[in-house]
Amino acid sequence: MDLVIAVVVLVLIEYIAFGILVGRAREKYGIAAPAISGDPVFERYYRVHQNTAEQLLAFLPAIFLYSHLGNTTVAAGLGTVFLVGRGLYLRSYVADPKSRGLGFAMSFLPTAFMLVASLVIAVGNLLGMF
């Protein structure tokens, strides 16, 4: 479980770093708070940060559920894929939003797998199948 917790902490640090990048972009492109539009590059940083928050809403329970019901090592590995995927998503989205597909898939698919697998295991346990 410590490995899963370490991955989760790294994911949260990454999210905080994305927020710092939004602040820097706000300053660089002259976007005064509370505005969230005005420069396309600033808006990309902002969208990456917001999209990551949206992804975290499902990822965090998914990794803890799967690490409890499934396999802790696999959960940590999938969490690492999520972490790398979000970094790739940032780089590609800021450069060209149309190129964000791989980074998105690398963060969405591990979450989806862990959620579905947790549901299957939980239902299987309830039905005495596992």
Written account of the structure:
By secondary structure, this protein is an all-alpha fold. The chain has a single domain, classed as Membrane associated eicosanoid/glutathione metabolism-like domain (Four Helix Bundle (Hemerythrin (Met), subunit A)). The protein has four helices and no strands. α1 runs parallel beside α3. The longest helix is centred in the middle third of the chain and has 30 residues. The relative contact order is 0.14.
In terms of per-residue confidence, which ranges show pLDDT below 50 for 5 or more consecutive residues?
none
Largest sheet: none
CATH architecture: Up-down Bundle
The sequence of SSEs as H and E is: HHHH
Question: How large, in whole angstroms, is the Cα Rg?
Answer: 17 Å
Shape: elongated
Find the CATH topology: Four Helix Bundle (Hemerythrin (Met), subunit A)
Summing up helix and strand content along with how strands pair, one would put the structural category as: mainly alpha
What is the CA-CA span between the terminal residues? 21 Å
Helix content: over 70%
Put simply, the count of helices is: 4
Beta-strand portion reads under 5%
CATH class: Mainly Alpha
Write the layout of secondary structure elements.
Blueprint: H1 2-28, H2 40-69, H3 72-95, H4 101-126
Helix pairs in contact: 1-2, 1-3, 2-3, 2-4, 3-4
